[in-house]
Design goal:
heterodimer; A: mainly alpha; ABC transporter involved in vitamin B12 uptake, BtuC; two-stranded antiparallel ribbon; 4 strands; B: alpha/beta; Rossmann fold; 2 domains; seven-stranded mixed β-sheet; 12 helices; globular
Chain lengths: 332, 404
């Protein structure tokens, strides 16, 4: 592997302005997915100080639930109902299913160990991750399942004509912005805003913040801590379910292993942004997506992960709390 | 006096220590020489065959390459069932999950199978990089391994695995020559992007095709991608010039190639996808216009039809077919070695090397015999009959049609 500077500059010149825009568009869409996963990590960490490594697998289950709904209505590329209500239904069912899964995981795997050392919880989280991954392997096999989103809703799928999801909405510098890419970005922003409002403006949000600050004090103030933690897992998992369906709609292929790497990137995004911070998760997700995209475009595929994890190391070195993370105040 | 009295004892002690060290060095040296040059006594240990013998089966049934490993495992299980139905001596496949690309896991599986004295031969492992790292444990145990998927030319032409490693799939040099010739002569392409998948199957083919195409005067741009972990190809696609005619993708995950092809089309690029035998998967790859090379297969054979009706469940995957053949080769050798009621690994190795399955019985469409010497592009352990690779094109209905 070589990184000759001149070759990189040549690539930048060759790709030109439109290449830069294309990479920006790709990074934004990918980063939106990472951001949604990172939000789940950050919420759970904020409230329990737990790195929930099973979160990536909840996202994978969400993608499978969405696929199940798609198939229940005739499957891609020609479902039996209109595309828009079908996609809405896929999102609703996958988000609810993933949310319930998150609550079940919290109730049966994490709650009994809440007073145990943090390492125990961490190992349990890894165990839950493998459990989910291999359960899906047993249930659905190892082969990839395809949303066939390229042809979904196409007038002539037999001739491999593209469907409405990949239709360009507008063009900048000769780069098409497809409907699905814009939808993923817009949905991620909308979900993040909704989450921020929920945490900042609602009673549940206030209870979540209180629980994150001090479990015991929150309980003494009459907050049902168990319920708040369950709600946190539900919301985080709902976002992961949404991200799973978005992934399927944008990239088509899903399998039981997809949560591992996505979870790793989501976790990286959460740490880069400042774990525990909701805007930080969004910022971290977009940053990781953009770095991955530009590294792949300008440096080549073998450099993208090096760049992403290089950023993680750099941020941890210069700002250990992450870009938007708050400095922890210790009682002495 | 005291000092003079002590000196002989000191010399004696030093002498004894030196002797002990020399003896230890001799023992270690002898052991090391034996393990490097020849297998331990494991390969001459006779085991009673009884009614059933064990054959190891190393495949990545979980992990990123799980879709491939599961195909191999299904074909392997199918071979076991069919063999046991037709023969008195039953075989039992002892499965090891190598979790490709985790080569450390492949070594652990190889060590487990090699140390299991009841295992007389091993089918697998899947990846060429896995074969590379598994050679030492298999050799130490004196056990032969037959891979149905490892295609790196260097595995055999180096001559280092003579008598221990065999494969029931043609090597990269044979396939890359066919692919390059078809791209240049039939498709008349001169602007090609080669994307390897950062594993030894893929880089071997990519290197070969790139070298041959450049030698033929074509312009070749080389790219890399980790097909097992990548989720979004769009940034890679941004690097592909708009006037590219062929994108050569010697990958193994057909579903990922399908996704890549869809994103390539969505980006407005019209390049034709060209894959290797790893992409011969009509269930997962349906992109019209795509070409793939595939080794010859006796498609009308009733065993293949039975698989597609039964364990394949309507699936037309053929990726695991050479693993079926590998199980068959191993079972035949074990049966011969067990003729007198007991068998050693050394006998099984010898019988594998002498395999001779006529064309009429071969699912690969040509006789199966193994090369004994280096004769490029073949090496010891390669199939002796040169494979005539077929080129398929996917038509508008998503079907694979033979075009060369």
């Amino acid at each position: 592997m070589q990184l000759p500077l001149f070759s990189v500059l040549d690539t930048v010149r060759e790709l030109g302005w439109s290449g830069a825009v294309e990479l920006f568009r790709n990074g934004l869409a990918l980063g939106s997915l990472y951001a949604l996963i990172a939000l789940g990590y950050t919420m759970v960490y904020g409230i329990l100080k737990l790195l929930n490594f099973a979160h990536g697998d909840v996202y994978m289950v969400g993608a499978f639930i969405g696929f199940g709904v798609l198939n229940a209505f005739g499957g891609s590329p020609s479902p039996s109902i209109a595309i828009l209500p079908l996609i809405v239904l896929m999102f609703v069912v996958a988000m609810l299913g993933s949310g319930v899964l998150g609550v079940v995981i919290e109730r049966f795997a994490y709650r009994p160990l809440r007073s145990s050392p943090r390492l125990t919880l961490l190992i349990t989280a890894l165990g839950v991750s493998f459990f989910l991954q291999n359960s899906m392997l047993l249930l659905f096999g190892a082969q990839f399942r395809s949303y066939q989103s390229f042809q979904l809703g196409s007038d002539n799928p037999a001739a491999f004509e593209p469907g409405p999801l990949v239709e360009p909405v507008f063009t900048i510098a000769d780069v098409n912005f497809q409907r699905i890419q814009l939808a993923v970005f817009a949905t991620s922003i909308a979900l993040m805003v909704a989450l921020t409002l929920l945490v900042a403006k609602t009673t549940l949000g206030k209870a979540m913040r209180a629980t994150a600050f001090d479990h015991e004090a929150a309980a003494m103030m009459g907050i049902d801590v168990n319920r708040v933690i369950a709600a946190t897992f539900f919301i985080g998992s709902v976002l992961a379910g949404a991200a799973g369906v978005m992934f399927g709609l944008m990239f088509s292929q899903i399998n039981h292993f997809m949560g591992f790497y996505a979870g790793l990137k989501g976790f990286t995004a959460a740490v880069v942004g400042g774990i525990g911070s909701i805007p930080g998760a969004m910022l971290g997700g977009l940053l990781v997506g953009l770095v991955e995209s530009y590294a792949q475009g300008y440096l080549g595929g073998q450099w993208s992960d090096i760049a992403v994890f290089g950023i993680l190391i750099f941020v941890l070195l210069v700002r250990p709390t992450g870009l938007l993370g708050a400095r922890a105040i210790q009682k002495v | 006096m005291q000092r003079r009295g002590h000196r002989p004892r000191t010399y004696a002690a030093l002498g004894a220590l030196l002797t002990a060290l020399l003896a230890l060095a001799a023992v270690i040296g002898a052991t090391a020489t034996r393990s490097a040059a020849a297998p331990a006594a494991a390969d001459s240990t006779a085991i009673a065959c009884g009614n059933r013998v064990s054959i190891g089966f190393a495949a990545p049934v979980t992990g990123p390459a799980g879709p491939l490993g599961q195909q191999m495992a299904r074909w392997g299980k199918f071979a076991e069932t069919r063999w046991n139905r037709a023969h008195k001596l039953d075989i039992r496949l002892v499965q090891g999950d190598t979790q490709l690309p985790d080569t450390a896991q492949a070594v652990r599986v190889a060590e487990t199978l090699a140390s299991n004295q009841s295992v007389l031969a091993v089918v697998g492992p899947a990846g060429s990089q896995e074969v590379e790292v598994s050679t030492a444990p298999f050799r130490r145990g004196g056990v032969a391994n037959i891979s149905g998927t490892a295609t790196a030319t260097s595995l055999t032409v180096s001559g280092k695995r003579r008598g221990y490693f065999f494969r029931t799939v043609p090597n990269d040099d044979q396939q890359s020559a066919r692919a390059a010739a078809f791209i240049r002569r039939n498709l008349r392409a001169s602007r090609i992007v080669v994307i390897d998948a950062q594993n030894s199957y893929s880089t071997g083919l990519a290197d070969g095709v790139q070298r041959l195409l450049r030698a033929a005067g074509a312009s070749v741009q080389r790219e890399s991608v980790n097909e097992a972990t990548i989720t979004d190809f769009s940034s890679l696609i941004a690097r592909i010039p708009n006037d590219t005619q062929i994108v050569y993708t010697p990958w193994q995950l057909a579903a990922k190639a399908q996704q890549f092809g869809e994103q390539l089309r969505a980006s407005g690029r019209n390049a034709t996808l060209f894959g290797g035998d790893g992409l011969y998967s009509p269930d997962d790859l349906k992109l019209p216009g795509t070409h793939v090379t595939a080794f010859p297969v006796a498609l009308g054979n009733r065993t293949i039809r039975a698989y597609q009706r039964g364990p394949g469940g309507g699936s037309s995957d053929l990726f695991g077919l050479p693993s079926y053949v590998a199980v068959d080769v191993a079972a035949r050798a074990v049966e011969k070695a067990c003729a007198n009621g007991q068998a050693t690994r050394a006998e099984v190795r010898r019988f594998i090397a002498r395999t001779n399955i006529p064309k009429a019985q071969s699912l690969l469409g040509f006789p199966i015999r193994f090369q004994q010497t280096v004769k490029r592009p073949l090496g010891p352990g390669d199939m002796r009959t040169p494979a005539q690779y077929i080129v398929y094109r996917i038509n508008a209905n998503g079907q694979f049609v033979k075009v060369g």
